[in-house]
């Protein structure tokens, strides 16, 4: 996840999907980092991406090309892509200020942030926290009072800063959502790029083959995972950056401390432990989703046991068991992982819907240094 945030020690250009009119291969905020030899991440592939890579490398080879550009691509008539929409891409040469912004983002992958980059005029690249305080970068911060979003339906003037206050935050992931281009009162254009922390969080109980396969898949997706098992030697030496390992003999305590709306997936080596965890999860409020590995027979057994322990029927009914998408019957760990991760994505996208391109960020306090 977020390969564009890779720390590179060579000249590079950051390419961001700034505006999408109609249908496009990726959402606003999607990014890739382009060097002379490498391409990290994707803005959707196809002819659009090839053209973007070519332009980025041309900017690296031509010092007079400018530090930042905003380019318009008509996908159908110009590029021959079936999407048929229009995509505006922002190209930013990674200078010292932007390098500091990217370093700040790497250090704050679990914090809400946003960035401002000047498209016109004097170079400026700034990283700001959710409250509008500049925390990295360089250049003068603009006044966004009466700034006007460009290329958005029903756009009106007024201060435009991201809204992280809702349950979903500004977006589901750090690569999609309310990234926009605004024009300030002086006429300068600015890229306002939302970089929120992932909202979806999973507590995954069990470090066996299936648990390991699920962690590998979720490592590429916009979420955070707490991976829990009492057997410390079951965990691999390295895990994805969005995964935290918890080796504990009291996993129920992690259920009690979990944030409201978290998801839970139980697939331990012990049916007795599965039952204890199921009781703890179903007894607490504000469970986003709960899945328990097992057959339909196991579900019937657990329904009886949980009811005998005083768990309400409506809570038991919310338990997902068996897990995974209907129609996938393979018991290969990788197949189970693919099925369950697809199921989780469906749940999370329903819980944390992405804002449409026409939606406006809320009015907010001024930027402060």
Explain what the structure shows.
With 369 residues, the chain is α+β, with helices and mostly antiparallel strands. 26% of the residues lie in helices and 24% in strands. The protein has eight helices and 16 strands. The strands form three sheets. A six-stranded antiparallel beta sheet has the order 8-7-6-11-10-9, with helices on one face. Strands 3-2-1-5-4 form a five-stranded antiparallel beta sheet. Strands 14-13-12-15-16 form a five-stranded parallel beta sheet, with helices on both faces. Helix 3 packs across helix 8 (333-351) and helix 4 runs parallel beside helix 5 (271-283).
Which features does this protein show?
369 residues, alpha+beta, 5-stranded antiparallel beta sheet, 8 helices
Q: Give unreliable regions as ranges.
A: 169-177, 357-365
What would you report as the Rg, rounded to the nearest angstrom?
Answer: 23 Å
Largest sheet: 6 strands, antiparallel
User: Which descriptor suits the 3D outline?
Assistant: elongated
Number of helices: 8
Helix content: 25-40%
N-to-C order of helices and strands: EEEHEEHEEEEEEEHEEHEHEHHH
Mean pLDDT metric = 87
End-to-end separation in angstroms reads 30 Å
Structural class: alpha+beta
The fraction of residues in strands falls at 15-25%
Q: How would you write the strand order of the largest sheet?
A: 8-7-6-11-10-9
The total beta strand count reads 16
